[in-house]
Design a protein that fits this description.
By secondary structure, this protein is mainly alpha-helical. It is built from five helices and four strands.
Length: 228
């Protein structure tokens, strides 16, 4: 009976729309809209109630060590600046670890590039296979020329499209890895310069007219110090 009852057509009960006289108030709120609004209202009400309870039972003598490093600005807790969180020795150690990681990635990229270069072969720069043969008489020279001409007439092997596509993808990967290696080497050089600039000792940046070999990168000069 239940399956038969579900098979029979039923009347679609539509909710009433907003009357034309109340169009200025917008769409008429349906029951599902009221449920969403009521849940949101009660959720905010519960949150305010919990905050009021915390404020009522707050201990005026409570202390946390984080209160030393924070301050209240317009009722909002803000942490102090963490610019000087680490000492100079700790910063130097972290910089050394970063440079070591970059060097490891450079070595990994070099190995991958060498492996790809060994597997692939360039079809544009094929070596010319020339071999000089010497004949004792005219008959032998004629025979050698006939052998060479017969070898040149051998039809070339047509490479499938799938293999050509894989080869082109591999060459593109090789080019991308070479560009990535250049970027990593540049990054490593910049990080090494920053590490040297963090060390002790007086230094200054040279002007353009003081640089012997002009370069786009900044050049620094350290003051000579007598070692004891």
């Amino acid at each position: 009976m239940s399956s038969l009852r579900n098979a029979l057509p039923r009347r679609a009960h539509k909710e009433r729309a907003q009357p034309s006289t109340r169009k200025k108030f917008g769409l008429l709120e349906k029951h599902k809209d009221y449920v969403v609004r009521a849940k949101a209202f009660h959720k905010k009400e519960e949150a305010i109630k919990k905050l009021k309870e915390k404020a009522a039972f707050r201990n005026p003598d409570e202390f946390y060590f984080k209160m030393i490093n924070t301050k209240t600005v317009n009722g909002i807790h803000k942490l102090e600046s963490e610019a000087n969180k680490y000492s100079q020795e700790e910063l130097m150690l972290m910089k050394t670890q970063d440079i070591g990681y970059i060097m490891q990635k450079i070595q990994s990229e070099k190995k991958k590039i060498e492996k790809l270069t060994a597997v692939l072969h360039s079809t544009d720069n094929q070596p010319s296979n020339k071999h000089v043969r010497y004949a004792e008489d005219r008959d032998e020279a004629k025979e050698i020329s006939e052998q060479i001409s017969s070898r040149e007439n051998v039809p070339t092997i047509d490479i499938p499209y799938r293999i050509k596509k894989k080869t082109s993808v591999s060459y593109k990967e090789l080019e991308d890895r070479k560009n990535r290696l250049k970027g990593l080497e540049k990054l490593c050089a910049d990080m090494a310069l920053q590490k040297e600039l963090q060390k002790k000792g007086k230094k200054r940046k040279l002007r353009e007219d003081e640089i012997v070999s002009p370069t786009s990168k900044p050049v620094y000069k350290w003051r000579q110090e007598r070692k004891r």
